[in-house]
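Data deposition worksheet. Section B asks for the primary sequence of the deposited chain exactly as it was used as input, without tags or linkers unless they were present during the calculation. Section C holds the resulting structure in token form. Section D is free text for depositor observations; keep each observation to a single sentence. Incomplete worksheets are returned to the depositor.
Section A, Depositor: J.P.
Section B:
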Amino acid sequence: MFKRILVGFDGSKESLSALNLAISLAKLHGASIKALEVLDHMPVILEAYVKEDSIREKERIIKHTELIKKISIENSVSIDYEVVRGDPAIVLSKYAEAEGFDLIILGRRKLKGLKKIFIESVSSKVLDISKKPVLVVKD
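Section C:
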């Protein structure tokens, strides 16, 4: 049923839960997994002024690349990892459709207080806009 699984990944415990479920489904269905990390879009003009953030992002990507490799080896499953920029919900939804993924798996973070009122979560937004099936993993 599922041959290509896309996982929204950011290194959080919620995204690790989503990745673990993707691994179980991949083993069950013989599916491939792509862990896609979407970094918020930064205008090119600002990149020169925000070098510290850029260095942190590079360190984060290296850390996540090593983590994905470790998880892949431990579970005997091939996991492709890619990093792109943009609005996470839009990128995940469009990427899944353009690349022919059968399922999107996301972790769910609980937003609290004012954030819950004013900010729509990535998982909620993907559920609204994706044309592909979406599985949201509660921790």
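Section D:
Residues 114-118 have pLDDT under 50 and may be disordered.
The first helix runs from residue 13 to 29.
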